[in-house]
Structures are given as C-alpha cells and as structure tokens.
Design brief:
With 98 residues, the protein is mostly helical. It has a domain of 57 residues. InterPro entries: DOC_1/2 (IPR017266). This is Cyclin-dependent kinase 2-associated protein. It is found in: Nucleus. Its main location: nucleus.
C-alpha cells in the first residue's frame, strides 16, 4: 500500500459527509461539536486520534458480520483517522523544529 493511497483526502475518495459525525471534515457544518460523552474540540490531535481508533473498534465486528451500515461508518472513520494521523505527524514535525 503506497503512501499516496494513505494520504488521499475524503474529497478524493468521494465519500459523502457523515451526518452522525459532525466533526468529520466533510460535514456541511464545518465545525466541531461534542460527540458522545467527550468533545473533540478541546482535545489534542493525538487524543482525537485515540478516540477515533476506539470508535473504530466498535464497528469492526458488526462489519465482519455483514452490517452494511457498520462497514460504511468504518470507512468514514478510517478516512477521518488518516486525516488525523497526517495532522499528528505535522504537529510532531513542528514541535521537533522548535
């Protein structure tokens, strides 16, 4: 799997915005709002990534069982996780320079 494949944005993948996840970069509101018991707006990129990975774990088993909604949700979460990984790397590079 090449790097260019991993670095595609959600727009390049032609995925629709996820109404369930308003913090998703493709969501029409464009703002971050609380999701579940925690809010991502005050969290570091790394903490957001950990939360997304935890959320991803909830959809893995149902998607293997054939749940289409879980599989689609998992795809959107993976796209979001990729974006966060990129942002974490940029944040790390910036802090290493200072």
């Amino acid at each position: 799997m090449g790097t260019s494949y991993l670095l595609r944005s959600h727009k390049q993948l032609h995925l629709p915005p996820c109404p369930r996840h308003p913090w998703h970069p493709g969501h029409p509101s464009g703002t971050q709002v609380p999701v579940g018991p925690t809010s991502t707006s005050g969290m570091s990129k790394y903490a957001q990534l950990l939360a997304v990975i935890e959320e991803m774990g909830r959809d893995i088993r149902p998607s293997y069982s054939g749940s289409r909604s879980s599989a689609e949700r998992l795809k959107r979460i993976i796209v979001h996780a990729r974006i966060l990984v990129r942002e974490c790397l940029l944040e790390t590079e910036r802090s290493a320079r200072n």
